[in-house]
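INFO batch 0412 | record 1 of 1 | parsing
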Amino acid sequence: MHAIPLALVVLVVAIALLFDFLNGVHDAANSVATIVTTRVLTPTQAVAWAAFFNFVAAFVFGTGVAHTISNNLIDPAVMSVYIVLAGLLGAVVWNVLTWYLALPTSSSHAIISSLAGAALVKAGSHAILLRGWAPVLLFLVISPLIGMVLGYVFMHIVAWSTYRIPRERASKLFRSLQLFSAGAYSLGHGTNDAQKTMGIIVALLVSSGYSRYATSRHVLFGMHHEISLWIILSCHAAIALGTMIGGWRIVKTMGSRITPHLRPMGGFSAELAAAFTIGLATFAKVPISTTHAIGGAISGVGATRGVHAVRWVWARRIVYGWVLTFPGAALIGGLFYLLLHVTLEPLVGVAAR
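INFO prediction complete | emitting tokens
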């Protein structure tokens, strides 16, 4: 007989999928910001396009990022249902708060920070695996820079290769190409962000004694997986549904306030740059902020028209949101753990081990 009641585990899995859904509402708005700003697609068409590729990503990439989340950031021996629940609740609260404030912060950093805060309250600093955090913190710094550099370079390549083509013809061409670049970005976003929730669910099931429901070896469209198929499909479905709901307050910030008058050429370059950045991180099995990637890429594209073409005040606002996420989400996660330790544990009758 399991020490952790199955009903509690099912509840936490449902909250994890709720977080994944909110990730779609909060972060996946970035998937459609540029293509809406350039008027290639209407908002309704754009979210449907992005949601489709968010889900298709389940059949394209592996689950290396999920492994990083479940094993490499927090000591598996410390992980418990209470840490996972506190981490999820902390991240959900942080996402709702920043959504209300229209701050395009990272759901990725919110969840890992909130989990870390809960683990720190339970077991102290030894619960944090520094070797696993090193690449995460590295990409925190370099991912917006990579996106910015690639956006700047791709925009120059596009401008150089089309300078002899009439502007209207070139614009029409890149309106079509932007469908490809937006799809590529959403594909990368879907695989990197949905895998974070996969990793959380796997960690929850393993730490609660239900590991047989978490892992199974199978092949999906030529890709070898060790995470159960139901986890993969449910996480991608949740983030795709969240994308369908949309987050237009953040779309406005990301698409038009960073660099106004974004055109199809610029949208194509920004989305392609962000897709490359996310793909690099996914290949390295690192959970990356897709907000970092697209924000940096849009800024890089805008900078090709001169430094003053980028509204750096909005870029700074985004950076402030990123900086606040680590301590803010960690604090909320730690507080939720204390609350659960005091209230839920006596009711359930299971030690917060």
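INFO post-check: The radius of gyration is 20 Å.
INFO record closed
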